[in-house]
Amino acid sequence: MLVTKHAAELCALLVNDLYGELPSRILIALLTKGRSTIPQLVQQTSLNTRHLRNGLGVLFHQNLLYARTEPGSKTTTYEANPDACYNLIRSGKILEVLEQRFGAAERDLVQTLMLLGHARIQDLGQAFSTRAPQANGETNGSHSMLIGSESRLRSVLARLLQAEIVEAVRADTFRNPAEVLDEYKQEMAKASPGDRISNKDKIVNDEKAAERYIAFRDNGKAIKRQLDQTRGSYAKRRKLQNGHSTNGDHIDDDDAPHLNPNIIVRVNYEKCLVELRNHRLVAFASDSIGETTASVYRTVLDLATAHMSRCRIDPLAAVKEPEPTPITVTTLDIFDHLDEGIDVARGIGKVSGDKIDTSSVEKVKMEVPQSDDESDIESDDDGPVPNGRSNTRPRGNTVQHNDEDPFSESDNETRTKGERPSRVTFDDSSTNRTARIEQMRQHLLLLKDSKHRFIRHCGTQGRGQWTVDFRLLMARFRDAEMDAVIEQSFGRHGLRLTRILRERGKLDEKMLYSSALMKKGDVQGKMLAMQMAGLVDIQEVPRDTNRLANRTLFFWHFDGEKTQAQLLDDIYKAMLRCMQTLQVERHKERNILSFVERKDVQGKEEEVMTAEHYNKYNNHLEVQDRLLGQVMRLDDMVSVLRDF
Amino acid sequence: MAPSAVPRAVATTAQNDSDAAKLAVWKQALYERVQESGRENDAFSQDDLIDLGVIPNGDKMLLIRVVQALSDDKLFVTMRDASNNILWKWRDAQEAHKYKQLDDEQAMVYSLIDDSGGDGIWSQTLQRRLNMHDSVLKTALKHLQTKGLIAPFKNVEHPNKKMYIKASIQPSDRATGGPWYTDQNLDEAFIEDLQRVVFDYVKNQSSYVSKHSGGARTQTPSKGVVKGNPDRGKKRDAREMNEPPAKAVKTSTASAPREAVLLPLPAGYTGYPTVRDIARLLSASGITNNTILSESDVKKLVDVLVWDNLLEPIRVAGKIGYRVSRVSKQSTDVWAGREDPTGREGQPESYLSPYTEAPCGRCPVFDLCEEGGPVGPSNCEYFKKWLGME
Where is this region: Disordered (chain A) (predicted)? Predict the structure, then answer.
């Protein structure tokens, strides 16, 4: 991955913050100079070899480096792994999401792994066994109960391994994947006979290399496959546990699997990103539709991504790896996993049944839409309509959308008169279940009908099958993020102009102001401001060879990719500034902070400190929260723009 | 038929008297026939004219004479197509009469202005096309103006150019800018107010007002939803009994009790307003007093709102309706008719980006900002203000 200046600085700052200055200095050298050997690093950093080895050791242990020892020579080259460095910032978020999804014990284990970088299973066992009896004054009283025994650790670890959150580490895990692929390609080229390689051969070779690369990459998952075989797949187990986090510590103990204690494990950030993406998408759905719908969506996403090991296709393996076949989930599946605390009757307005067009609602789209055009709006082709379902569906199901106080009942009555088959309900749990499924389906349909198209209705089995087209959805999400930035930097009019350009391509100025319903001068001013900011650009098309200004056409265009790249770098910079401001603040309050760090002060700050100092300390904490919170929110944007 | 055409034909030499009379008849017949063919702006080739069947035996010599006579009377306009074939177009008799009172230069100028139609023509273009002397053109224009044949006017697309248009016709919508222009100026206040009205209307029509206070899951619904055993049919583990109930999903944790909130309408709702509905509302409400908004004008207005991310199109049952974006975040107040620009009530709520909320996203000197530079994190004024440390 190529790194911009600000991204590099940010990485170094994060490492500095967490692991101290020495590793940070080495990291900067590695980021700026590229792959280096130890003698080269000595030159670049003016550190002595001993320090250097210590620093490299830290970086290596935290998986922040790529290292490679040439088989012939005995020198080792080091290279920074900027992605891993950046991921440091997400640790907290990942832990939070994992706790929600799996439970506190899993979170605890991952947290320990994050602290250690990577660790042998045996060592992990030791770490926990020494920690368990201590539990010294932890505010979290249940802490010691989380992972108390060796077998408990093994079962938790097995769960995480099966969920791909944790992966096994081998010696070659620390190699740069791009380099590995290159090496395979070279080997392939060497192996093929003849001097010149035809294009066709090259493609075949590339594919073979990619195949080998995929095998190399998925090596760490061998242990997962093994576990899947012996314990049954992860999804199955989850189903058995009815989607609940295992809070009790006795559930899996009996069948704790045997794990080779010499296996080294670490956190698999790629899978964590999938979990983070789900989290983010739920927030997005909550923002654009509503909270109840979002919680239904959460269940859909959890099911749809259970077997998804990465957010995007690995670009290195793109030639061989096909676009993953979308995972479909059925309505019944979703319903079985839905948290029964969610009141699905809420969050959707009531209308009378005759105002609902069932046929267009139930339209099934089997194919993945190719591009993200508005074809859905324009096209007239009606897909197959599942007639079975749409007929049996109670049209007056609005009765169940009863989030109103009883007084509005009469009003409701008149609005949906007659069309209420379920009015005569038997208080029977199966009827309730049907009603509840139907209400949940309403939320699913709402998600499908949104302009962001959160899910796609792709089949009729199991009361409807649903899938998520992540690639397109994320593209729309990225656009939404970009729109928000444009709107707030250049106003509603700026947003309008860029949206017109995005929709229509290159446009003459005249077209621009006539469709935007804006004054010519205003358009020119806005466009100029946006051109200065690098959002839009102008293209000159001369009408003849003279290139005179009045014989030239000028077209405005909007470069989405460039804008995104630039926005991303600006966000890095903004994050960097937040972190730096935090450092400045810490430096300002260094006296108080060093006082607070003392062992005899920790925990009883209020009693020990004077009121003035205590207030200052609290203010500082507030500032810190604010700055770190802002960094986290900016990271949300980075994730959307870059990783998801 | 032009009254002047007949006497002129009669006035030709005596021995061709009968000839001339015949010619006049043919002229009239051909002219009427061409008019009847009903193609106002269509050009006729020689073959087309013969095919009309007016000229006996397809006599080309005769046709030439007739057409020549019609051209002399300005009833036919001669032109050439791309492959240099000669074509003719007919002209209204009254128009022809106007042409006949003009001298050559004036006629040339007038014909160009005539051709430009409702869009008008720029005086410079006239000069370039005609290659006339400046003063000649000016006198011709003046003459035409005093005769009341042409009028100067302003085109909104080129407000600084001196344009001329035929006095007898209305400037085209393109030239006047359509209903959005008042006195050649874009009426921004009018547009803005209309947008608000449209937004409010669509918001009302595409959302459901729930007056139910409280969050999404704090209260048990009064009836209907979960009676009996909700878990029937679910595969549950017996051990689960010992466990506390499942944790709430974070996104749905209830916010503080709100007043009325807007809820989305169920999928497939057919009542989302279409462009036609909106146009009907606008004309019925009478806000647009003198201006008549066509459906395409309203479409333009709605398009702009869509581009502003305030509305979104949705296709239900074969027609495209519009609904408000981010419905649950919008307030229930009306946007239209609010004078106070600072009060955000009723204004559409759009998605806020975290980037622009913090100082850096709005920093005017962001490009200069560097540690150790004139501005940097250690001396940043904006951060100080944002963190409340002033």
Answer: 236-256, 352-434
User: What span, in angstroms and rounded, lies between the C-alpha atoms of A34 and B120?
Assistant: 66
pLDDT (0 to 100) of residue A195: 62
The residue ranking higher by pLDDT, A62 or B118, is: A62
Q: How far apart are CA B241 and CA B254, in angstroms?
A: 26
Relative to beta strand A118-120, strand A76-80 is unpaired
* B281 pLDDT above the threshold of 50: yes
**Cβ pair A483:B309 closer than 8 A:** yes
| B178 has a chain A CB within 8 A of its CB | no
Backbone angles phi, psi at B146, to 5 degrees: -65, -30
CA contacts within 13 A on the Cβ side of A53: 4
Averaged pLDDT of chain B = 74
- Give B82-111 pLDDT, tens digit per residue: 777 787 877 777 777 777 777 877 888 888
Does the beta carbon of A424 lie under 8 angstroms from any beta carbon of chain B? no
User: What pLDDT score was predicted for residue A131?
Assistant: 66
| Least confident span in A56-65, B52-61, B197-206, B292-301 | B52-61
Give the mean pLDDT of B296-314: 88
Instruction: Give B127-157 pLDDT, tens digit per residue.
Output: 888 888 888 888 888 888 888 888 887 777 7
Q: CB of A240 within 8 Å of any CB in chain B?
A: yes
Which residues of chain A register pLDDT less than 50?
1, 134-145, 239-254, 373-427
Dist CA B170 CA B167 (whole Å): 8
B267/A contact by beta carbon, under 8 A: yes
Q: Give the count of alpha carbons within 13 A of B187, CB side only.
A: 17
Mind giving me the DSSP string for A340-368?
TTS-TTSSS----GGGB-HHHHS----SP
User: What is the rounded distance in angstroms from the CA atom of residue A231 to the CA atom of residue A456?
Assistant: 32
> Which of A336, A439, A571 is the closest to B234 by Cβ?
A336
Q: What is the C-alpha separation between A241 and B240, in angstroms, rounded?
A: 8
Q: Mean pLDDT throughout B303-308?
A: 90
Of residues B4 and B296, more confidently modeled: B296
ipTM attached to this prediction: 0.79
Using a CB-CB distance cutoff of 8 angstroms, which residues of chain B are in contact with residue A347? 216, 263-264, 328
φ and ψ at A266, to 5 degrees? Answer: -150, 175
Q: Tell me the β-bridge partners of B153.
A: B163
φ, ψ of residue A497 in degrees (nearest 5): -65, -45
CA separation, residue A329 to residues A297, A455, A464 (Å)? 12, 11, 8
- Listing DSSP states for A10-65 in one string gives HHHHHHHHHH-HHHHHHHHHHHHH-SEEHHHHHHHH---HHHHHHHHHHHHHTT-E
| Backbone φ, ψ for residue A579 (5° rounding) | -65, -40
Q: What separation, in Å, do the N-terminal and C-terminal C-alpha atoms of chain A show?
A: 16
Domains in chain B with CATH codes? 5-91 (1.10.10.10), 101-176 (1.10.10.10), 184-215+258-334 (1.10.10.10), 354-386 (no CATH)
What pLDDT, in 10s, does the model give residues B173-231? Answer: 666 767 777 766 777 888 888 888 888 888 888 888 877 644 444 333 333 333 334 43
> CA of A214, closest CA in chain B: separation in Å?
36
Q: Categorise residue A265: left if φ over 0, alpha if ψ from -120 to 50, beta otherwise.
A: beta
* Alpha-carbon span A286 to A297, nearest angstrom: 9
Beta-carbon pairs below 8 A across chains A and B: 299
